[in-house]
Write a structure and sequence with these properties.
Layout (H helix, E strand, L loop, with lengths): L2 E5 L3 H13 L3 E5 L2 H11 L3 E5 L7 H9 L8 E6 L4 H10 L3 E4 L4 H42 L8 E8 L7 E9 L2 E9 L4 H15 L11 H11 L10 E9 L4 E7 L4 E5 L8 E5 L17 E4 L4 E6 L16 H15 L3 H13 L8 E8 L1
Parallel strand pairs: 1-2, 1-3, 3-4, 4-5
Antiparallel strand pairs: 6-15, 7-8, 8-9, 9-10, 10-13, 11-12, 11-14, 14-15
Helix pairs in contact: 1-5, 2-3, 8-9
Length: 380
């Protein structure tokens, strides 16, 4: 049994519709004008509404507008009852939010058939809404799981803070940092092609493999060896055509030496403190290579640099500077690095939040078009 509200200022029409629908086993509430009908609708939350178009006061189009403005009635099927037969009239009704029309005088068989069809569509919409809510709940749970996997801020002679902003509930960015032993710190950030669940799953898999040192016959102190092992394991032909970029580094705290390798990833940015009145020194740390998984025969190389005291390293994904092309802004890697250097000088350990605000301002919206990850590593 479904709940139906019938709104019409003609008592004879109300009676005809009521009897026809009750004969089908439905619960029918009647209203003689738009205001009374809206009260009935708010109280009953019906599956279907049949409403006369032409009524004094609140007419059928206004009732339809108010129904469509209520999220609780998003699946309610709305039928306009009218003697109008013009195409323009029907277009106006559809644009207002009506789902179907019944012509006067009413044919009972047609009325019952249209109600059956409307209730089927209502039930289908309800089922889809429930499935959507279940899916959103599962995605939210998965997103919480991914967030829980990401490392907590690190404090000490090396301090690390990070920000992760997926473009959807789930994203393809992932990062980690941990001590291989008391003297060697691993830092890495990867970006899987695509978005959503399909990108999140391989990024989590790679994170867990690196965190647990599960790649066989790999020297995790040598970044190029790690990338070689990842490339051998994650060929895109075996990974649903997914590939990923990565920046991987190992910091020796005794020698203050950072060894790093990249695979198609943006450079990390090392900002050294200024000497006297000089400007800060900025280095871009990157080694040339294709992303992981694109080709099996790829050679990866490592490079190294000395880390002066009070230096700061930024590692990030390209989503933070590749903004919406429709905006036609000049923002890009060079402009981002320049702004990043200025932000570090002005805000220090508050630079991460400042940079995200700047990027969102350049993007013209709070949401990003791609996943965004940003790490700030400060070396005392």
């Amino acid at each position: 049994m479904s709940r139906i509200v019938v709104i019409d200022d003609d008592p004879a029409i109300r009676t005809v519709i009521q009897r026809a629908l009750q004969h089908q086993g439905h619960e029918v509430a009647l209203a003689s004008d738009g205001e009374e009908g809206l009260e009935q609708i708010a109280q009953i939350q019906p599956a279907l509404i049949i409403c006369d178009w032409m009524m004094p006061g609140v007419d059928g189009l206004e009732v339809c507008r108010r129904v469509r403005a209520d999220p609780n009635l998003s699946t309610t099927f709305f039928v306009l009852l009218t003697s109008r037969v013009g195409v323009d009239d029907r277009i106006q009704g559809l644009n207002t939010g009506a789902d179907d029309f019944l012509s006067k005088p009413i044919e009972v068989a047609e009325l019952q058939a249209r109600v059956r069809a409307g209730l089927r569509l209502h039930q289908l919409s309800r089922d889809l809404q429930v499935q959507k809510q279940l899916l959103e709940a599962e995605l939210a749970e998965a997103a919480a799981y991914v967030q829980a996997l990401l490392p907590q801020p690190l404090r000490g002679e090396v301090s690390i803070d990070a920000r992760f902003v997926p473009s959807r509930q789930l994203g393809g960015d992932c990062f980690d940092y941990f001590w291989l032993d008391p003297d060697y710190l691993v830092l890495h950030l990867l970006d899987v092609s695509g978005h959503g669940l399909g990108a999140a799953l391989p990024s989590i898999l790679v994170l867990n493999l690196l965190r647990s040192h599960s790649l066989p016959n790999i020297n995790f102190y040598q970044p190029n060896d790690v990338l070689q092992g990842l490339n051998d394991t994650f060929q895109m032909s075996n990974q649903n055509e997914k590939y990923f970029t990565i920046w991987y580094g190992v910091y020796n705290r005794v020698k203050r030496q950072l060894t790093y390798a990249t695979a198609g990833h943006p450079p990390a940015v090392l900002i050294e403190p200024p000497c006297l009145a000089a400007s800060p020194s900025v280095q871009r740390l990157r080694t040339p290579s294709l992303p992981i998984g694109m080709l099996p025969e790829v050679t990866f190389t490592s490079d190294r640099c000395y880390i002066p005291e009070n230096s700061t390293l930024y590692i990030f994904s390209d989503g933070i500077y590749e903004l919406n092309p429709a905006l036609k802004t000049s923002w890009g890697l060079d402009a981002f690095i320049e702004t990043l250097t200025q932000s570090e000088a002005a805000y220090g350990d508050k630079a991460l939040d400042h940079m995200l605000e700047r990027v969102q301002g350049c993007n013209g919206a709070a949401a990003f078009n791609d996943d965004v990850s940003l790490l700030r590593v400060h070396f005392s």
